[in-house]
């Protein structure tokens, strides 16, 4: 009996070793992978990782900064420019940071530095535009700041539109700008429009015409409306017009008899 029991126990143990593993209690759970006989290859040393980079989220594109909405800049003194002209008064310009933020920032920066004070209108074409912003009054000058990349936009070049002058390169705008006297849609998307006159257009119309004008009108003071700079006195907002030249004396008049 003893030997029979021992033999039965050995047989049961052998059967237990050959039995398959019990199924996973969860039908969707995968079975463990079989053991690997060959040793796994040793991975090379990992490349150094910047601190916290391993835990960082996957890189994504940075969304573009949304353009300003009209309620953020229309009639906002921070985006209004005052031009006090030698033609007699103040011109108020509404700037458009929604379409040309870098150009708006540039003109505000130069205005607050006093750069434009006293600068003349060196190129004024009747029925077209009045150009200024060059301290040399030659059309070749600018500020010490770097040129600005173009911000062409669909703003039309209407009467009173403020737009940036440039050389042949699209990204050569610096400090010179022009104000339209009449619409010229051929300039749209070729020059960066970034504002428009909202009052005082009569003082733009009164700027002396010419390329260059014989008498150059000037910007006595340019300021951002938020800075609340008062207008210069009326005596400064006037132009010294040269006396008219004496009429030429003709040869006939030289030879004419002296009247008694």
How many helices? The count is: 5
What is the overall pLDDT average? 80
The end-to-end distance, rounded to whole angstroms, is 176 Å
Determine the structural class based on helices, strands and strand pairing.
Answer: alpha+beta
Secondary structure layout:
Blueprint: H1 2-18, H2 70-73, E1 80-85, E2 90-95, H3 101-112, E3 123-125, E4 129-132, E5 161-164, E6 177-180, E7 193-199, H4 201-205, E8 219-224, H5 251-255
Antiparallel strand pairs: 1-2, 1-8, 2-7, 3-4, 4-6, 5-6, 5-7
What does this structure look like?
Strand 1 and strand 2 form a beta hairpin. An eight-stranded antiparallel sheet has the order 3-4-6-5-7-2-1-8. The protein has 260 residues and is of the alpha+beta class. It is built from five helices and eight strands, in the order ααββαβββββαβα.
Task: Offer a few descriptive terms.
single chain; 260 residues; alpha+beta; 8-stranded antiparallel sheet; elongated; disordered N terminus
Put the structure in a nutshell.
It is built from five helices and eight strands; from the N terminus they run ααββαβββββαβα. The protein has helices spanning 2-18, 70-73, 101-112, 201-205, 251-255, and strands at 80-85, 90-95, 123-125, 129-132, 161-164, 177-180, 193-199, 219-224. The chain has an eight-stranded antiparallel beta sheet.
């Amino acid at each position: 009996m003893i030997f029979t029991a021992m033999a039965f126990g050995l047989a049961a143990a052998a059967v237990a070793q050959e039995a398959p593993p019990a199924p996973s209690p969860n039908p969707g759970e995968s079975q463990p992978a079989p053991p690997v006989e060959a040793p796994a290859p040793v991975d090379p040393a990992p490349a150094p990782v910047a601190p916290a980079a391993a835990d960082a989220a996957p890189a994504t594109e940075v969304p573009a900064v949304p353009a300003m909405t009209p309620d953020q800049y229309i009639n906002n003194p921070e985006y209004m420019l005052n031009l006090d002209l030698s033609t007699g008064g103040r011109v108020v310009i509404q700037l458009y940071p929604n379409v040309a933020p870098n150009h708006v920032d540039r003109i505000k920066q130069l205005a607050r530095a006093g750069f434009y004070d006293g600068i003349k209108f060196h190129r004024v074409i009747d029925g077209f535009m009045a150009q200024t912003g060059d301290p040399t009054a030659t059309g070749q000058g600018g500020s010490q700041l770097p040129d600005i990349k173009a911000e062409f936009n669909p703003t039309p070049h209407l009467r009173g539109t403020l737009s940036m002058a440039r050389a042949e390169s699209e990204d050569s705008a610096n400090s010179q700008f022009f104000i339209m006297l009449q619409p010229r849609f051929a300039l749209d998307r070729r020059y960066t429009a970034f504002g428009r006159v909202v009052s005082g257009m009569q003082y733009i119309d009164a700027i002396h015409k010419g390329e260059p004008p014989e008498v150059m009108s000037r910007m006595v003071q340019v300021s951002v409306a938020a800075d609340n700079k008062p207008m210069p006195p009326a005596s400064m907002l006037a132009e010294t017009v040269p006396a008219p030249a004496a009429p030429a004396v003709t040869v006939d008049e030289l030879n004419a008899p002296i009247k008694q």
